[in-house]
Amino acid sequence: MLSNDRAPGDLDVDDLFSIRGKCALVTGGGSGIGWMIANGYARAGARVYIASRKRAELDARIAELGEAGDCRAIEADLSSEAGCNALGDELERREPKLHILVNNAGANWGAPFAEYPESAWDRVLDVNVKAVFALTRRLTPMLERAACDDDPARVVNVGSVDGINVPALQTWAYGASKAAVHHLTRMLARELAARRITVNAVAPGPFQSRMMRSTLERLGDRVAELVPLGRIGRPDDMAGVAIFLASRAGAFVDAALIPVDGGITGTR
User: Fold this and answer.
1) CATH number reported for the structural domain that contains residue 81 in this entry
2) pLDDT digit string (tens) for 191-239?
C-alpha cells in the first residue's frame, strides 16, 4: 500500500519514525559524527555496520554500545575506488540488501595558502568526494533491493557548514570538498530517485569530533558564542536528524541539504 492510500487519521507516530529492522552502513563510524549517527541508529533498532581503517576503534565502540544495539565492524580504506568496492563486496557477503547508507568518512588538512600541498588536495578529495560517489554506485544494487515506493532506501551524505560558509581556518581542500558533496548529493538524488533511493545531505556545524577537538580545546567558549543557540552540537542533535531522514517520516525528502548548526547558516 502506498502512503497516499492511507486512511485519513491513520497515523502511527511510533511507526512513522521507526527504523527498527533496517540495515545501515555508516562510514567513518568509529568516531565523531559517524558514531553519533551509528549509535543513534543502533539504539533505535537498526542493524548497523560501522566502517573505518581503525579496527581497534570500531571494536571499542561496539563494546561501548554493548547490548543496547546491534552494531558490527568492517575494516575499510575508502581512499580509493578499489577500497570502496572491497567494502561493498564484504557487506554484500553479509547482507542481502541495504536500507541506509551514510557517507561520513572524511579527511581534513590545514595549511597556509602559500604552503598548501598538492597531496592535501589528493587526500581530501579522494576520501571526501570520490569515495561518496564510488561507494554509493557500488551499493546501489543493495539499496534498490531494500527500496519501495512507501519507504525508499536512503543515502545520507555528511557535508559541513564549511561547504556553505567560508571557513575561518585555512582548510582549503576541506571546504571545497564539502561544497562538492552538497552538489553531488543533488546530482545523485536526481539519478537515483526513479530507483526509489533518496539522497540527502546534512551539514554539521560545531560538534565534539576528532576534527574539531583542537579548535574546541582552544576556543570552545568562543565557538559556542558564535552559535545563535549558544552551544555546540550534542550527539542526540545529529542522531535525531539522521533517524528522521532514515525513517518513513523522511520518505518524501530528497535532494535536501539540512544544516545542523544551531542557526549559524540561516542567520548569516
Assistant:
1) 3.40.50.720
2) 999 999 999 999 999 998 776 666 767 766 788 898 999 999 999 999 9
Count structural domains, the chain.
Answer: 1
What residues contact residue 177 under an 8 Å CB cut-off, 6+ apart?
124, 125, 128, 129, 163
Supply φ then ψ for residue 234, to 5 degrees: -110, 160
Q: Is residue 249 part of a domain?
A: yes
pTM of the model: 0.94
Residue listed under C-alpha cell 545542523: 260
- Which residue range is the domain that position 100 belongs to? 14-258
Render 93-127 in DSSP notation, one character per residue.
HH-S--SEEEE---------GGG--HHHHHHHHII
Q: What is the pLDDT of residues 87-131, one digit of tens each?
A: 999 999 999 999 999 999 999 999 999 999 999 999 999 999 999
Between the CA atoms of 10, 16, 22 and 25, what dihedral angle is there, to the nearest 10 degrees? 150
CA distance 198 to 211: 28
Residue of 41, 49, 116, 174 marked catalytic: 174
Q: What is the CA radius of gyration of the chain?
A: 18
130 occurs within a structural domain: yes
Q: Give catalytic status of residue 116 as yes or no.
A: no
Residue 216 lies in a domain: yes
| The amino acid at 267 | T
Q: Which among 213, 200, 207 is positioned nearest to 238, based on CA atoms?
A: 207
Residue 5 lies in a domain: no
